[in-house]
Structures are given as C-alpha cells and as structure tokens.
Amino acid sequence: MTALQVAALVVVAVGALAVVAARDPLRQAIVASFYGLSLGVLFFTFAAPDVALSSIVIGSVALPTIILLALAKISDRDS
Amino acid sequence: MSAGESAHTPRRPGEISFATRRTLFLVSALVLAGVMVWALGGVPSFGDYHGVYGLVLNHVAVPERHATNVITAVNFDYRGFDTLGEEFILFAAVLGLALILREGRDEEEGPPDDDASGRRVVGASNAVRLITVLLIGPTVVLAGYVIVHGPITPGGGFQGGVIAATALLFVYLGGEYLTLRRVRPLPAVEITKAAGAGAFVLIGAGGLIFGTAFLANFLPLGTAGDVFSAGTMQPLSVAVGLEVTGGFVLILSEFLDQTLVVRRRGGAR
Questions:
Q1: CA nearest to B82, candidates B214, B224, B223
Q2: Angle (CA) B262 B92 B144, round 5°
Q3: Is B9 inside a domain boundary?
Q4: Is the CB of A49 inside 8 Å of chain B's CB atoms?
Q5: What is the Cα–Cα distance from B33 to B29, expressed in whole angstroms?
Q6: Is A6 an 8 Å CB contact of chain B?
Q7: Is B147 domain-assigned?
Q8: pLDDT tens, position by position, B46-60
Q9: Can you tell me the ipTM of this complex?
Q10: Neighbour tally for B261: CB within 10 Å
C-alpha cells in the first residue's frame, strides 16, 4: 500500500466520522459532499477511476443537492 | 402514568429500559467485533487477486473489442444485458419519483418564490453569475467528452450524464428560476430520457438482427484508442448518457419545483 493510499483511507475515515458528528442537517449535507469527493480520491488512488467518477458525481453533487432542496422545502413548511 | 415510572422519562408500555438496551448493545457489539476480527484473519493479503474472469477480461478486451477501458467493455459489451437492467431500474426510479412528487390534491402551483409579486429579486451576486456562466460551457463539453470517450478512457454514459445534468444547476445558481424553466422544456427532457432507454434496447436488438445475439457487436471495430474504435459500445454509451442526463434533469427539476413552486392551497406550503 502506498503512502497516498494510506492518506486517502485516513481522510475517508475522518470524513465519515465528520458526517456522523455534524448534527445540523444543513452542515451535514455540505460535509457529506466533501466526504463524497474524498471517497472519489480514495477510489482513484486504488486505480479505479471509473468508480471514482461515479462516486464524485453522485456523492458530492447529486446527493447533497437533493438533501439541500429537501431541507429548503421542509424549512419553508415549518416557518 | 403508573407510580413506578420516572416523571422525566415516561416509559410507554412494552418499551425496553435504557440499561437493558445498553447491555444488549454491548453484548452484540462484542460478538460482532469478535466475528470481524476472526473474518479479517482470513482475507487475502492486500493486492492479492485471484478472480479468473477479471484476469481473462484484462487480456482479451483490447484484442477482441478494441476497447482500452475494460470497465466500459464489461458494462456495455460482456455484461451489456446487466446494464440494460440497470437502465430500467433508473427509468422506473425516476418515473416513481415524478409520480410521488406530482401536484397533490391539496396543492397548487403558485408563482415561483423568485418571482413573487411586489418582491425585489435579489438574485445571484455578479461573482457567482460570472463563475457559473464561465462554467456552463466547459461542463457541457466535459460531459460530452466523458460520454463519447467511454470505451477509451475512464467514464461513460452514466458519469457523463450526471455531469451534463449539473450544468442545469449552474443555470439555477447563476440565473433565476424562470431562466431555468426556459432552458429546461420538460417534455423534451422526458423524450430525451425515453429515447436513451429505447436506443439501448434498439442497439441490443441490432445485435440480434445483424449479429449473433442480443447486444452482440455488429459495428466495425476501429483502431484501439480511437474514439470510434469499440463498435456498439460507443452508441450504447451515448444512449445511457442521454437517459441519465434526462433522468437527473427530471429529478432535479421535480425537487426544485417542490421547493419553489408547489404550495398547499390557501397560500401555506
């Protein structure tokens, strides 16, 4: 295992903890977005660029966007 | 509330106490940890791979299919039928979403929040406008590149399709909801999505007519590394790209409409 792969694994582990630790859903969506990006970097260092691309487009773009829109809808209804 | 229960944490009938739950968790966690450690002792060492199918494909994909990206060769050729199934999973999922998020009986579409009468639209700052305008073009080009070069370099219809759909987000971020509606005629988006799904089946049927089996390659193979080298993989990648673009634009539009336009009758949302 190269140093880059170890570093990517550590970043992903810390990122996953950060997603769970973020209590506010709004912050959580942003943290999850960065987590998706770090997951993409992890796959890339393990020579899986196809999976890395899928992970980046879904984990750091599509999923956080949908969470943000859902949050906007809910907060509108509450106020 | 019965006399034996604490006033702060009223326990519903049948509810397990905190101490019991904690004991249950600790015991299960201990058992799980033990089994995990035991299982980890038996996994192959790092980088040790004995999958015969993968090793064979790595050697035959370039000579047989002229596709330098073996993953696309697996997705759109060797295991093309599986991808057909995935296509229709996405198709059904987007349809279901559109069905659930349709205008309910107690809801109506109002003027978008961005355009409420008597309200000055703040809009995006000039910096955001400039960045999004500069990024929309390259994003669409990148999406096209990733889709078309699927058989050669990492990427393909799925990844490129989602990238294309994010161009729509830039339009919303930098412009206004009304601009978004103009660049996103929903019937056209639906047709694109359906055409992509249909094209995949038709190309597959082409293999049945001109080749030997469903999804078998029937187009000439070019020089490995060229854009048009890998026969039917290229059009299949484009078909998936169309479907995924349409699907994700539809998903994002449904959610944006829910947030900005649809509200409960009587003004409240």
A1: B214
A2: 85
A3: no
A4: yes
A5: 6
A6: no
A7: yes
A8: 878 888 888 888 888
A9: 0.83
A10: 19
